[in-house]
Design brief:
heterodimer; A: 445 residues; alpha/beta; FAD/NAD(P)-binding domain; 2 domains; four-stranded parallel sheet; 12 helices; globular; disordered C terminus; B: 445 residues; Fumarate Reductase Iron-sulfur Protein, Chain B, domain 2; Glutathione S-transferase Yfyf (Class Pi), Chain A, domain 2; 4 domains; 23 helices; 51% helix; binds flavin-adenine dinucleotide
Chain lengths: 445, 445
């Protein structure tokens, strides 16, 4: 039975942030997850907050934090340093992000020809953030035979009145389908395959040449930018992006696609690499099924394994198991939502309201904000604010109650800030209260 | 139903029914090492949960009025190497690799096995023939003409990393040096002894691995029992020959279960054999009886067992110094154990040894997969990132727990690859040598 200073359950942005912060601080930390998380499904951008009529992210965060039941009410101080920290880590891994919480939230194109609000994006998507100058055109360019990106449909959507929320969008939006070498007849052409193709220097040289030719033939040069599907490389992304920027006459930016998300994969891989380098352990594949508790404290975490449970001895457990989509909350036929690991009290509306008349109404679906309530230190509490569950537990990410990430676009900001806070990174020099030296001594001695 | 019973039931949910959980999110396709390198394999989602809907349960009669029963709608499932990364990655708990294994068995159920697969599936048969003829057999394995014949007639690739036969099997060496004692559970103390499952590799090809393991176990006060045993059957399972595998499994279960029930731990040096004893007999071969459960619960990977000793402060940690960098590759089978990276934890106990997890996916060989004429090139392409990283590390030795991976990596890179337990055994010897030198050296020298 190995022992660790901390165990993090969940491999989403929250769990990865917490694990990395702990590993960096020198803690022996295990990240355990039953499978990959929303990183692989989401856009790869860092959604911190966006609200109607809030110009900047900071403004939106402040408005959310005004509601004492929103996670930002306890996280808004941790948020700026946590974001700066994770961006530093990502930059170090060759995955820089652009934009700040004081910059404006602007509409950026999606792969179904709509726009979504964004402010902090990976460098490859950054050109979409800059305001559109008069006379600038947008070319929506995709490879022929690729079923996840339809330039004509996207361009049409982006030409609709209102697509850019009344702000100045590009003056013209033109579709461009380019035949890339050897692509049309591939049996399986998904985003991952294309991203790997772009990693072959010879192939991408020809691909960029084909795009340049098509732009000239189509008369689509001139001032502007181009929207490419988010497939510009995976492990060697930085090189592919640099070359795309220098070889293409229009400034390119990536548009995230349907899952699996290549930008999300890059984000996951960068954080995982940083964790492994810092000595943290990542184990993905089986569910955590039992939390051992003695004298009111967490003492061990048990994961399913081939013959007997894999048990890690620890007295610090960070729960980043996600919301309903991640598996952190499970619905039961009796009309309750439960937290399966510690049976922590779940804040959720009564089952009768689960079937909302208008699930997409502006006010949100009643179930969206369900989760576990915590105190300012992210320890779980019950409805009356009294400590719930054993000592040594921290809650983070979308498992926290009170957020509506689909509406408020706050999922990544909450994840990073809470992961960072749960890891104790806000008190860097102070000895971590939850990572007792005594445990290490006990095992060695 | 108690929680334990529920967990037990969930763990034995028929593999194929998990297909219902598939959300089509494609996350499995992002981790598949085979579809990463070849277009011939469409990826785990398609041959796994997607095709599963069209497969009939084994033995089910053709339905009245329906078209002919389709045993497998997609024969490319044969290109799945069974590495298991898809199963581990799946956010929805779909047992994709296991599903593919069953589909392969179903595809072969009514046919006479291919001679090549039948041969590769029985390393014990090959060993029994090869070891007595070792000089001749090894010369043939090195002979280009003979390998060409082997490729043309049998279908084993001429460059496939076939191991060389030991001149004497481990069992012969063992019974000559120790006699044929300790066969019955009654004659030993389960607290102070372990049962060793050597498997075919250590018996016929690498007796030095078995001997290293035994020396390490004995150093820690454990008496080693080597009972009668046959091949675990995994090569047959991965070649879809379940019936033959079941015969071997029954044989092993009969012997091993008496030890398991008497409280002995069964330890193996091959992560593949131990995973077969732990999980595949029960899950893949449907031998889920009391014997199989007893054996599963008693089986340990050698490093898992040694780390357990260490955690209970019962491991002799007097290892000799070894100042060097040692790249470590955890084999896919080890990840399926779900036991973390015990080898890395143990190697960290050797003073000066800087053992580092390469954190890459599969080496490509996947047991007997990469030996086959039509799959060898795939196996080599899959391993490229690993080979490159190893070469760049500048190390002249690497560590890996699984034999076929060791042979494949060594052949592809020219770097010596050893089992972690060999490195530990050498570190014990180095310690003893240093002690002897210190004791023998004159104090003024
Ligand atoms: C499809 C999708 C789209 C989204 N889009 C947006 C968006 O546009 N804007 C926005 O702001 N937010 C969005 N979000 C939310 C946002 O991605 C998350 O809130 C944020 O990334 C934090 O996620 P998390 O780490 O808390 O949990 P998740 O990413 O859900 O990860 C949960 C992890 O816990 C693991 N887990 C759960 N139970 C167990 C167990 N018992 N044992 C072991 N492991 C377990 C899972 O395997 C997984 O690894 C989206 C989420 C999803 C699912």
């Amino acid at each position: 039975m190995p022992s660790a200073d901390a165990v993090v359950v969940g491999a989403g942005l929250a769990g990865l942030s917490a694990t990395l912060a702990l590993a960096e601080a020198g803690a022996r930390v295990h990240l355990l997850a039953k499978g990959h998380a929303s990183t692989h499904w989401a856009s790869g951008g860092l959604d911190v907050a966006a609200l109607p009529r809030a110009v900047t992210v900071r403004e939106a965060v402040a408005r959310l934090a005004d509601d004492a039941r929103h996670p930002y009410a306890i996280l808004s101080d941790a948020l700026p340093p946590a974001l700066e920290w994770i961006r530093g880590m990502l930059q170090h891994e060759g995955l820089p992000y652009v934009g700040t919480i004081d910059g404006p939230v602007v509409p950026v194109p999606t792969s179904i020809g709509a726009t979504r609000p964004a402010a902090i994006l990976p460098a490859a998507q950054a050109a979409a953030l800059r305001p559109w100058e008069p006379g600038e055109r947008l070319v929506v360019c995709g490879p022929g035979g690729f079923k996840d990106y339809w330039p004509h449909a996207i361009a049409r959507g982006l030409r609709r009145a209102g697509a850019w929320w009344g702000s100045a969008g590009p003056e013209r939006v033109d579709p461009l389908v380019v035949e890339l070498p050897g692509v049309r007849d591939r049996l399986n052409l998904d985003a991952i395959e294309l991203a790997r193709l772009f990693e072959e220097p010879g192939w991408r040289w020809d691909a960029f040449a084909a795009i340049r030719r098509a732009l000239i033939i189509g008369g689509l040069d001139g001032p502007g930018r181009m929207a490419l599907p988010a497939v510009l490389g995976l492990d060697d992304h930085a090189a592919v992006l640099a070359e795309a920027t220098s070889e293409l006459p229009l400034e390119p930016f990536e548009v995230p696609l349907m899952p699996p998300s290549v930008p999300g994969l890059r984000l996951y891989r960068a954080l995982r690499a940083a964790i492994v380098r810092a000595g943290g352990r990542v184990q993905i594949g089986q569910a955590v099924v039992r939390i051992g508790v003695r004298d009111g404290r967490v003492v061990e975490v048990a994961m399913e394994a081939a013959a007997r449970q894999f048990v890690v001895r620890t007295d610090m457990l960070i729960m980043a198991t996600g919301g309903i989509a991640g598996g952190g909350l499970v619905g039961h036929p009796d009309g309750t939502l439960r937290e399966p690991l510690l049976d922590l009290p779940v804040e959720a509306p009564p089952a009768m309201s689960w079937l909302a008349r208008e699930p997409l109404a502006a006010g949100g679906h009643p179930l969206e904000a369900a989760g576990i309530r915590s105190d300012a230190e992210l320890r779980p509490v019950d409805a009356s604010g009294r400590p719930a569950g054993p000592a040594g537990v921290r809650i983070c990410g979308s498992l926290l109650a009170g957020q509506r990430y689909l509406r408020e676009r706050c999922g990544d900001g909450v994840a990073v800030a809470s992961g960072w806070l749960a890891a104790g990174a806000h008190r860097p020099s102070a000895p971590r209260r939850d990572a007792p030296q005594s445990l290490a001594g006990e095992v060695a001695g | 139903m108690s929680i334990t019973e529920l967990i037990e039931a969930a763990a034995h949910e028929p593999v194929t029914s998990t297909a219902d959980g598939c959300l089509k999110c494609n996350v499995c396709n992002t981790v598949c090492p085979v579809s990463r390198v070849t277009d011939l394999f469409p990826g785990p989602k398609y041959v796994g949960p997607q095709a599963q809907r069209f497969r009939l349960a084994p033995g089910s009669p053709p339905q009245a009025g329906s078209v002919m029963p389709v045993l497998s709608p997609d024969h490319t499932v044969d290109l799945c190497s069974g590495c298991g990364f898809c199963t581990n990655a799946c956010p929805a708990g779909v047992r994709i690799a296991e599903m593919n294994s069953r589909a392969r068995a179903q595809m072969r159920a009514d046919r006479r096995p291919h001679l090549r697969d039948w041969l590769l599936g029985q390393p014990d048969l090959l060993g029994r023939v090869g070891v007595p003829l070792a000089p001749l057999a090894n010369a043939a394995l090195r002979n280009r003409a003979a390998r060409w014949v082997g490729e043309t007639l049998v279908g084993v690739h001429r460059h496939a990393p076939l191991p060389t036969f030991s001149r004497r099997s481990f069992r012969t060496r063992w019974s000559r040096s120790r006699g044929r004692r300790l066969r019955a559970p009654g004659s030993a103390d389960p607290e102070r002894s372990v049962v060793y499952f050597h498997g075919c590799a250590a018996n016929y090809y690498e007796p030095e691995v078995a001997e290293a393991a035994i020396s390490v176990l004995e150093r820690n006060g454990l008496e080693v029992i080597v009972p009668q045993q046959v091949c675990c059957g995994l090569p047959l399972i991965s070649n879809g020959l379940y019936a033959q595998a079941r015969a071997r499994a029954r044989h092993n279960l009969t012997t091993l279960a008496t030890f398991a029930r008497a409280g002995f731990r069964i330890v193996g040096t091959s992560t593949s054999c131990t995973h077969t004893l732990k999980a595949e007999y029960r899950e893949m071969l449907d031998l889920d009886d009391e014997d199989a459960r007893a054996v599963s619960g008693a089986t340990w990977d050698i490093c898992e067992l040694l780390l357990d000793l260490h955690e209970r402060d019962r491991l002799d940690t007097r290892f000799g110094r070894s100042d060097r960098h040692l790249p470590y590759h955890p084999p896919c089978q080890l990840r399926s154990h779900g036991i973390g990276l015990p080898a890395l934890d143990l190697l960290a106990l050797v003073p000066g040894l800087d053992a580092v997890d390469l954190d890459l996916d599969c080496c490509g060989v996947a047991g007997t997969y990469g030996l086959k004429r039509e799959k060898y090139d795939i196996a080599m392409a899959v391993g490229q990132p690993l080979f490159r990283k190893l070469r760049e590390s500048g190390a002249d030795e690497a560590a890996c727990d699984s034999e076929t991976c060791r042979w494949h990596i060594a052949k592809a890179t020219g770097i010596r690859v050893r089992h972690p337990v060999q490195i530990l055994a050498a570190a014990y010897v180095a310690y003893a040598a240093a002690e002897a030198e210190a004791a023998g050296a004159p104090s003024d020298g």
